[in-house]
Amino acid sequence: MEIRDDRRYTSEHEWLLLDGAEGTIGISDYAQDELGDVVYVALPAVGARMTAGATFGEVESVKTVSELFAPVTGEVVAVNEALRDHPEHVNASPYDDGWMVRVRLDDPAQAAALLDAAAYRATLPA
Amino acid sequence: MTSATGAEGAPHPYVPATEADTRIMLDRLGLTSTAQLFDALPADHRDPSIELPPALAEAEVLRLMRSRAAMNADALTRPSFLGAGAYRRAIPSIVPYLISRSEFMTAYTPYQPEISQGTLQSAFEYQSVVCELTGMDVSNTGLYDVASATAEACLLAVRSTGRRAVALLEPMHPGTIDVVRTYAYGAGVSVDVVRGVDELDAVHACVVVQQPDFLGTIHDVEAVANAAHAVGALCVVAADPFALGLLRSPGDAGADVVTGEGRDLAFGTQFGGPSVGLFAAREAHLRQMPGRIVGQTRELHGPREADGSEGAPRTGYVLTLQAREQFIRRERATSNVSTGQSLVALAFTIAVQAYGPHGMREAATLCYQRAHEAAARIGALPGYDIAERGPWFQEFLVRGPLPAREILAALEVRGIAGGLDVSGRDEEAAQDAFLCCVTDTTPPEHVDALVEALAEIGAGR
Questions:
Q1: pLDDT confidence of A50, banded at 50, 70, 90?
Q2: Rounded to 10 degrees, what is the CA torsion of B106, B109, B113, B116?
Q3: Is the N-terminal amide bond of B171 cis, ω within 30° of 0?
Q4: Looking at CA atoms only, how far is residue B324 from chain A in angstroms?
Q5: Per-state percent for chain A, helix, strand, coil, to nearest 5
Q6: Inter-chain contact A65–B287, Cβ cutoff 8 Å?
Q7: Residue B51 and residue B71: Cα distance in Å, rounded?
Q8: B156: closest CA among B276, B259, B277?
Q9: 20-79 in A: which are within 8 Å (CB) of B?
Q10: pLDDT grade, residue B5 (50/70/90)?
Q11: The pTM is what?
Q12: CA B51 to CA B270: how far, in whole Å?
């Protein structure tokens, strides 16, 4: 189980990697492992708004469907189009190739309210 | 009383409780008679006297029911020109024969569906037939009827576009409009019934066009689709699959979702049901589809042969994309539909395959020709004319020397169901008119009888 120290997490298992006023969002290694083989990722369009705590998409695996919760509030500036044909990136590479959306935060300080790696690790079952 | 007797000590052959059983139940409830169970009802509404004749023996009941059934105005023997959503088609004899086979005798998708490969294969074939007819990429295994399928198509459009209104293009079957309104009410979606595509705007998730429409007119689906797409809406076509044998496929014309009524080719019109609602869409909307979808796949490993070696992998059928469905997605499911019309879908599949692509085209062409010949004869009668409103398929609007209602009543007296009175509708072409339907199955002598009767009525006889 890899929980990277370079980013922030939500208790719903999304991660946010901040780069200036923009952040990249995906789901954690723990989340992809729990979901099983991901077969489809439904994501918003570029330009869509997302609100912290509200759903912004869905991940469908062979056994279930889970909603994606926005870690922060802002505007979607990029979507990982590669997931359309290669949803398995979410399993194989949850922190790199499996990224989902890039968002411009209304308030970059909002990221500080998210869990750091240690706090997120503490929420996971031992 | 009936001469049949029930179980030992039972008061009635169809009520299994014996007097002793009844006594035990009453004792448990602390009552002394079954009549006390009804004490909560007002006394004057209890035990109303019903004048019933004495019970009959089974053979007597059958004789009575047959004689009553013979009083029905049967569309097979009496001239009928009613259509308006239910059309008599020639159903190949192989259809009732094959669907009666015991292998197909199940009321439901079996649990563990994959154990019933035959059922799934027939559903897959149904989907293939529907995709070919509609020009769509994917079909589900069928919904209830065209009305509910069209309502589901509207909800698909709402999910796909994120918009909260749908437009229905008149003339549309009033039953379809009602069902769409009912579904939309529950989903918080508003329904605009429009008269032209110029009424579409960017609030609409889709426009639905009926093909041919409720008054029989064939639409230019491409023009409707272009108008819809221009405002970012989807184009839904509610089609008569029989007419698609002749008409350009909605998919080719730019439709995004196609629904249809499968009943007529499957079980026939009989009282309007049971039915199967065709539902097919472009692949872009696959994840938003309602209902069940059967996929074809191949085994990873073949069966173990007698000598222990692995045989060649076989083709198999599976329920697929189930994460859309309510047993997985719960309240976020694409639809609450959880059942199918498997037997009707099977009958539809067999009928269309028995016709074949060439046969479907021939039958639809014959239907078109017969209807136009009949319309020409009626239009040539003194005092009658056929409303002009562009190309049409099998239904035409007749105006006569008398109000439509009176003409239909006069036909009725002559034992002819002349059609549907649409004189009260808003469309100009429908003013003072009745909707007359002639198909390839309408016997020529019935058309002769109609023409003759209309001539008499027109001459005041």
A1: very high
A2: 30
A3: yes
A4: 8
A5: 20, 35, 40
A6: no
A7: 23
A8: B259
A9: 39-40, 42, 60-61, 64-65, 67
A10: very low
A11: 0.85
A12: 32
Contacts of B433 (CB under 8 A, 6+ apart): B387, B397, B398, B399, B404, B422, B423
What is the dihedral angle through the alpha carbons of B52, B53, B55, B56, rounded to the nearest 10 degrees? -140
Find which of B322, B325, B326, B331 to mutate to test the A interface (most A CBs within 10 Å of its CB): B322
Average pLDDT over every residue of A42-56: 95
Identify the closest residue of chain A to B328 by CA–CA distance. Answer: A64
Contact B332 A65 (CB under 8 A): yes
Hey, are the CB atoms on A64 and B323 less than 8 Å from each other?
yes
Measured CA to CA, the distance from residue B142 to residue B340 in angstroms comes to 6
Tell me how far apart the alpha carbons of residues B55 and B409 are, in angstroms, rounded to a whole number. Answer: 38
B415: left (phi over 0), alpha (psi -120 to 50) or beta: left
**CB-count exposure of residue A33 (10 Å: 0-12, 13-18, 19+):** exposed
Report chain B residues whose CB lies below 8 A from the CB of A67: 332
**CA distances to A67, B33, B323, B419 from B45, in Å:** 55, 18, 51, 43
Angstrom distance (rounded) from CA B87 to CA B439 = 8
Write the CA distances from B150 to B93, B111, B343, integer angstroms: 30, 28, 21
Out of A40, A61, A67, closest to residue B287 by CB = A40
Give the model confidence (pLDDT) of B63-105 as tens digits. 999 999 988 877 777 899 999 999 999 999 999 999 998 878 7
Q: Are A50 and A56 in contact (CB under 8 A)?
A: yes
Q: Nearest CA to CA, how far is A7 from chain B (Å)? A: 30
What are the tokens at A107?
A: 């308030």
Q: Which residues are CB-contacts of B436 (< 8 A; sequence separation ≥ 6)?
A: B81, B83, B374, B375, B378, B395, B396, B397, B398, B418, B419, B450
- Are the beta carbons of B287 and A42 separated by less than 8 Å? yes
Q: Which two tokens stand for residue A122?
A: 């503490």
Pairing outcome for strands B234-239 and B204-211: parallel
pLDDT higher than threshold 60 for residue A102: yes
Task: Please tell me the distance from the alpha carbon of residue B345 to that of residue B109, in angstroms, as a whole number.
Answer: 12
Write out chain A residues lying below 8 Å of B329, CB-based.
65
Are B186 and B215 within 8 A, CB to CB?
no
What is the gyration radius of the CA atoms in chain B, in angstroms? Answer: 27
Taking one residue from A and the other from B, the number of pairs with CB-CB distance under 8 angstroms is 14
Question: Which residue from A39, A40, A64 is facing B328, i.e. has the nearest CB?
Answer: A64
Distance (Å) from the alpha carbon of A39 to chain B's nearest alpha carbon: 10
Task: State how far residue A5 is from chain B, nearest Cα, in angstroms.
Answer: 33
Q: Is the pLDDT of residue B6 over 60?
A: no
Cβ–Cβ below 8 Å for B323 and A42 = no
